[in-house]
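re: ur question from earlier - yeah i can do the single chain one, its not a big deal. heres the input i used so u can compare w yours
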Amino acid sequence: MATSTPTDPDVRTPLPVPRARIGLIIPSVNTCSEPQFHHFAPAGLGIHVARARIVGPWQRPLPLMAEEIVTAAQHLADCGPDLLVFHCTETAMAQGPQGEERLLAMIREATGVETVATSQLVREAFQALGLRTLVLLTPYRSNHTIIAYLQATGFTVAHDVALGLQATAFSSVTPQQWVALARDHARCEADGIFLSCTNTTQIEAIVDIECALGLPVVNSNQAVLWGGLRRLRRALPPVLSLPPLGRLMQQLA
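and the output i got, formated as tokens:
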């Protein structure tokens, strides 16, 4: 069996030392967020993850999930993150704007770390791009809670598609299928596309959808990476090239 020697590139090239760290609280079934964040995050940004059972058969009212969420946040806080993210779009939006803030306050109190939700960063992304009327595409069983949250925070859904999948099947939809869905369901009155979910391949479809439709696209993972970079950029080394994730990421240039 071949063994590494001191002259092997993977041995002598040191790994980047994180200059800032983001901690993600993700659903226990999520398999997409970790590889996507590690792939697209620029050098110097550390990504750390803790899991909680908060979707699918484990989704319950917030008071019943609170202890598990707080425990996950406290575990993440031990590694010294600069920012914590409650990283489940549907679960955060299901609480409504006031419930979302109660959830964030609970995590901040338990950890002493600045905390945001994916839903909050998605809203900031819409505002940065000047979006108000959206086409909503998701793998969820229903988009009712997403639409209610968006309407309560000042956005209009012109058309929506929920694929009706089980949480464990969200990642089975390919980027090409998300592009096709966006093409098939575009609406002339919409000024943007919202691909909602943290556990999908949607992030890989952003550029192709923007090229096909000429509309900005916001995805949950993309919005969190963008929002994290906005908040932590001063702590990071100069970003030589921004992740190729569409118009939203270009807002950082």
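The CA atoms of residues 15 and 209 lie 34 Å apart. not sure if urs matches, ping me
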